[in-house]
Amino acid sequence: MGRPLLNRRLAEFGTTIFAEMSALAVRTGSINLGQGFPDTDGPEEVREAAVRALRDGRGNQYPPGPGIPELRAAVTAHQQRWYGLTYDPDTEVLVTAGATEAIAASLLALLEPGDEVIALEPYYDSYAACIAMAGGTRVPVTLRPSPEEACYRLDLDELRDAVTDRTRLILLNTPHNPTGTVLSRAELAAIAELACERDLLVVTDEVYEHLVFEGEHVPMASFPGMRERTVSIGSAGKTFSFTGWKVGWVTGSPELVGAVRSAKQFLTYVSAGPFQYAVAEALALPDDYFHGLREDLRRKRDILADGLAEAGFRVFRPSGTYFITTDITALGEQDGLAFCLGLPERCGVVAVPNAVFYDDKAAGRNLVRFAFCKKDEVLRAAATRLKQLSGG
Q: Whole-model pTM?
């Protein structure tokens, strides 16, 4: 055949780095700190709720296209409880196959070919692929390390300069994967002002909303003028440690949710029937659960961050999420991809090179991401192994 089989919009995307590095971990028997999934399940009562739904025959056949009423009501109650945001469960909530489908459906629904999408770089790899599938053009605005702090910052002037007459929407992720940045209330207010001024939509991925260790999570939809122009995306996977269930949701105005639903219905149509009932119960767990999850992950972050620093990495201690970004130049290394490919043989640990999250590969070339959503003993074992890199 003279024509390539793969659609040209996807030609730059191969197998995801997460699949590659997880396969490498299995092949070498290494500790996998590459992919962001916990190595323990979430609350037993939530798992039992799924079993109960299965046994009772709830969700074993096609659930309603927008999601079961119980989950849509639970999502609206969650938004009201934590942020004071009010949504209509019948017209302003859509259940999706995880946040990944929510992102894909939102971009497919809201973009026309040639529209520009501003995304904060480095970005989760599905963002670039979904923008491409929708025929959009991604415009990265790069988060950069602060000279004064071991963290990343957004340059609001750079963001403003990136907006053109072709810009359709801003794709946000806060708390941010992979840097762990939590955008401040002032930063989000400035983005909101820009969106209103330039008549832009905002799609905001908030799956790590309950994993904020410093600062606070402030939904973009809570700012003046933003409710009617914001698609907010949430997910049960990270909050309840059931990443395999793939239950996510979209909230927004009836017009925005209706548009996203039009695209979503031709992707999975419906999914995860019994799990939807379980997640509805999970969202009603007491505050102590959510606070305990945050403190548990904060402790895990510190275990791994301290271990990485002792091993010779420059550590950017995250304010949220599951992930720590490190600079490998202090170890005498420059190429993060080569470093990660060789790391399992050198010390039995798998990580992910940050360059795969950048359009500007040079900006991420010397950076490596580690996941800390693992058992304490696994993190300590990984830290001990990593000390071999510096002769420790």
A: 0.95
